[in-house]
Amino acid sequence: MLVLEEMDMDVFNKESVRSYRQRMRLSRPGHVWEALEDEDFLLKLGAVGIGSDGKKHPTSAGLLMFGNEYDIVREFNTYFLDYQEQYDADTRWTDRIISSSGDWSGNVYDFYFRVYNKLIQDIKVPFKMEGGARVDDTSVHQALREALANCLVNADYYGRQGLVIIKKRDTITMSNPGSFRIEIDAAKSGGVSDPRNGTMLKMFNLIDIGERAGSGIPNIFRVWREQGWVMPTFTEQLEPERTILSLTFEKIGDKKSAIKTSDKKSAINAKMKETIMAYLTDHAEAKASPIAEYIGLKPSRTRDYLNELIAEGIVVAEGGNRNRSYKLKS
């Protein structure tokens, strides 16, 4: 946990801290930290640490969660949070929230709730009835909370480019700087968790958001499977490193889908996959670059095909991002 000794306690947005404490009281009534003063509460939470000077200073996690944007960028120079609604093809966006606007704190905590409330608007999920009462908080809403928290706590805020969430009529994409710290297949399987910002995840956990035990991502896939929607996809990019989660709200095979794949395109995709499989048949294992050169595509597009083959259980990936290799599943 990095203690930012050049900063003092004034970097915290008081309204963000007040809001968080109120949410925690509702989630965990009677918690032992409830009676603490703000500074001592933030110390227990991991938002504050004791520096070498013996004084209290914000931690990197505390600054990101509860700081003001103009102080956050002093430590994280490329920090930028961006939410866009793109409903109209004739305009770049129809609604937008950015951390640098200056009319709100710009921190991760406030961004989460501003964006989550936008994400759940007009989601095509029927409500449930329990004991004669309408229940609007469905498994889809829970999965969206997991996806948003996962994006925010796994972002590399020292990395290049910002965090971008785009909502269209039938899709949501969440893109954060930084690569997966574990294999994507392991993340999908569950039981393995290695968040980049563990203290931030703890902060979300205490207000009942996010899963520490590695069940968040499997839960997202389970919910989409239960809904019969096109399965989510994770894509990793290099230079700069980014992780992109794509969520589609359309039934598999739905001809009314806003995202249609023509028969010709499907045939091309199938041919590309067959060519990759043929290459891996002749080569015990290979990285994305030589495969891309062989099939005549860019490495990023080739990795998309490889990720699809992994999801289909045909190919497995081994090694870290820069040394990742692929081979046919035995």
TrEMBL record:
It comes from the Bacteria. Keywords: Transcription, Transcription regulation. GO terms for biological process: regulation of DNA-templated transcription. PANTHER family: GLPR-RELATED TRANSCRIPTIONAL REPRESSOR, SCHLAFEN ALBA-2 DOMAIN-CONTAINING PROTEIN. This is ATP-dependent DNA helicase RecG C-terminal domain-containing protein.
